[in-house]
Amino acid sequence: MVLDTFDQFAADRIDRLLRFATALTCDPHLAQDVVQEVLVRVQHKWARIGPMQARDLYVRRMIINEYLSWRRRKATRTVTASHSTLDALGTPTADPATGYAERDAMRMHITRLPRKQRAALVLRYYEDRTDAEIAELLGCSAGTVRSHISRALSTLRANHQHPVREVLS
Amino acid sequence: MTYDRTEQLIRDVFADEAAGAVDPRQVLAGVRGKKPRKSYGLMLTTAAVVVVVAAVATFVVPEVFKRSSATPPVGSERQQEQTAAITPTNVLVIGTDTAGYTDSIVLTQVAADGSVNLVSLPRDSWVSSAGKNVRLNQIYQTAGADALLAAVSDLTGVTVDHYLAVDTAAFRDLANAVGGVEVCLLSATKDDLAGANFPAGKQTISGDAALAFVRQRHNLPNGDLDRIVRLQAFLRSLATKLKGTDLDKLVGAVQGKVTTDPNLDLLGLAQALANAKALHVGTIPIGNIDFQPAGGGGSVIEVDPAQVKQFVTDLPSTPPATGDVPCVN
Q: Do B28 and A14 touch (CB under 8 A)?
């Protein structure tokens, strides 16, 4: 394989990285900051990262760490953009199997989850990754990944049973 | 297949969020604009520039010369002329939704005798990629086009040289460009989410209806597997319509909505499809469609690489698709 340049790498990956970071942060602008910050660092260390076998995994891990530490710094930050805002920003032409109101409520419950649980959910349900891969990305054991996901699911399921009360509270 | 509403909601929420990402160009500009923090960064940039210049000199320049010397004469006869010398080509056509998921994956083989094979690979196929087992539709998004080409080459035994990634929304323009595509449904069907509302029987669809036809997977007896059959029926009808179409214009209409490897000849591919001597269409053989891998992550479809290779080898000698419009779910 011919070694590609950072510019080629960035141009090829940026779209997917941004989408991933946006799903992770539930905030397109925070996602932009996170991805930009990480890519500047990748560019800086390209001589080392470029030839790495698992560099895609490595860069994703950088993004997750950046997100986790960002959240720590801005612990009180709240995510308020609702669907109407996001619809105005992006083109919502995915292929959803569920209704808007229901998804909006679910989105709110997801943004309230502890950050590691949320990161685990994004890796499982957005990137379709296995427990082992998620464990590698989050730097924990597969058992911890399973517990993150099962806790997140039981919280979301419980809230999903009482959507109206939760939305209005 | 198992269906869990909470999990489906979570998937849809993340897909929605991802679709709201900012313009990548904006972020790239921000990265390039930032000065490296240490001085050896400058050396790195210089090195990168040297590598790019060398790459351009080595690959792009000869390619441009080759292309300009090989440019066919402008004129209406050129479509026919092109069929004289056919270069066998294998192209992976990747249909993506807005979130970047590869919903449809079709291996398109143009054979030396001018026949064309279309092999559908279900998106939930459980395949090997870089030594690990993964869901087929996760490779493009997480590891890129090259990794997907490698995985499909391994699975099918066919060396795939090119790819063509197309936003499924482009089917709207494709159907319009050929003046509508004829399809046939076994029964009336409706799916608000895909915007589908079709009566039973033969009908000519274009625009949003064409998009809904290739996207609908809910309220169908076999979900995504029915969607695959629909796409095949759509592509068969589309191929018959391509014969009378201005392909330059068609390629122009979709060019902005596709991503390809640098060497794919899009017009050549459209011509090969339009002038196909025979069209063979099929889906790779599948095993258990509700296989639960040990690592979790929901059900996937088992495929046997040996059976897949046999199928791909045998497909060209099966009876070709006729001009009839098959009725589908």
A: yes
Q: Which CATH number fits domain B88-328: 3.40.630.190, 3.40.50.2300, 2.30.22.10, 2.60.120.260?
A: 3.40.630.190
Find the CATH number of the domain harbouring A47.
1.10.1740
Q: pLDDT per residue over B210-258, tens digit each?
A: 988 988 877 787 778 888 889 889 988 888 888 878 888 888 878 777 8
Q: Which of B20, B41, B217 sits opposite A44 (nearest CB)?
A: B41
Q: Is the ipTM of this complex over 0.90?
A: no
Structural domains counted in chain A:
2
| C-alpha separations of B241 from A23, A66, B45, B174, B266 in Å | 40, 51, 50, 11, 17
Cβ contact A94–B12 (<8 Å): yes
Domain of A109 in residue numbering reads as 93-169
Q: Which residues of B201-216 are buried (b: 16+ CB within 10 A; e: fewer)?
A: eebebbeebbbbbbbb
For residue A88, tell me if it sits in a domain.
Answer: no
**pTM for the full model?**
0.56
* Minimal Cβ distance to B27: which of A18, A128, A130: A18
